[in-house]
Amino acid sequence: MQFKKPMQMLVGALSLSILAGAGNAAAADYPGKPVRLLVGYSAGGATDVIARLVAQKLSTQMGQQFIVENKPGANGNIAAELVARAVPDGLTLYVAAINNTINASLYNNLSFNFERDFAPVSLIATVPNILVVHPSVPAKNVKEFIEFAKKKPGEINFASSGSGSSIHMSGELFKMMTGVDMLHVPYKGSAPAVTDLLGGRVQAMFDNAPSALPNVQNGRLRALAITSAKRSEALPDLPTMIEAGLPGYEVNSWFALVAPANTPREIVARLNEEVNKALRNPDVRASLAKLGADPSGTTPEQLRTFISSETARWAKVVKTSGAKVD
Q1: Are 123 and 133 members of one domain?
Q2: What are phi and psi of 58, to 5 degrees?
Q3: What is the C-alpha to C-alpha distance for residues 196 and 193, in angstroms, rounded to an integer?
Q4: Which of 89, 160, 181, 285 has the fewest beta carbons closer than 10 A?
Q5: pLDDT digits 0-9 by tens, 43-93
Q6: Residue 69 and residue 159 in one domain
Q7: Structure letter (DSSP) for residue 120
Q8: What is the CATH number of the domain that holds 263?
Q9: Which N-terminal residues, if any, form the signal peptide (predicted)?
């Protein structure tokens, strides 16, 4: 009987050692199979473009395919729910974005909790939004756009990639701060929204920089201001919203990689290491810079803290603006 406790301790220690060894082995062998990266928006938008850039680099680094799958709908909630319910083996991942922290307060009946049901891996990049208008809109700057919109209350339509997206909330914040009355028109991603903007079916959009830049640079859309606190190197002559006369206006979209909750810590750590390695690659950084995106790279713990703060921040904006799901 006197050896019972020491034996229990020994068995416990051996069990922990075996589990640790199994976890390390799983991480060493990971991924072993193709990995699915689910994106909550249609192909061609900023989330999709950045996801494919990272997926390509991870495929090269890890010797296994990382395949982007677009599951648009409900402002990313459809894709997020699929990943939240997936087997936590690191083979099904989600490219999260700012919309997920906005959705937490915008939607009343979500079947998952973004903070609880996902394991943060790493922040990938941040990007500003750009207020762009169709060339038929006579305004050449933000002041003129506000004057134009106030003369046509309820007649100006602004598109977004979905209710609760940073594109949508950028517009709601603009409405709050300027008093203009514009109609929000949500789409299932930036690409179809931009298509209608180019066709003149809607007049304005606070599009993500990666999606907006090509159409601004080729003259198909007119950029009025950028939503970041500082100007973009990609469009150095474009003023910020603050410079355009809206002090305190700042919105930055962001993109991150997350896994289902309960994914083994060793796999999360391996993914974090590989994502951060990809983000240090000069070619990847140059590609992101061309998109107007700023590469990030964080620890899982830093991303968890960031997600929590963003969720709290947008809950206040949603409440104050009175924004509702369309």
Answers
A1: no
A2: -65, -40
A3: 5
A4: 181
A5: 988 899 999 999 999 999 999 999 999 999 888 999 999 999 999 999 999
A6: no
A7: E
A8: 3.40.190.150
A9: 1-27
What is the Cα–Cα distance from 101 to 120, expressed in whole angstroms? 13
pTM of the model: 0.80
Number of domains in the chain: 2
For 97, the enclosing helix (H) or strand (E) is: strand 92-97
Please state, in angstroms and rounded to a whole number, the distance separating the CA atoms of residues 80 and 136.
37
CA distance 123 to 79: 18
Domain co-membership, 89 together with 160: no
Distance from C-alpha of 145 to C-alpha of 157, rounded to nearest angstrom: 13
pLDDT value at residue 326: 52
- Find the domain containing 38 and state its range: 11-127+253-321
Task: Tell me the pLDDT tens digit for each residue of 209-235.
Answer: 888 999 999 999 999 999 999 998 888
Residue 183: predicted pLDDT: 95
Distance CA 269, CA 43 (A): 29
**Residue 238 has which token pair?**
């474009």
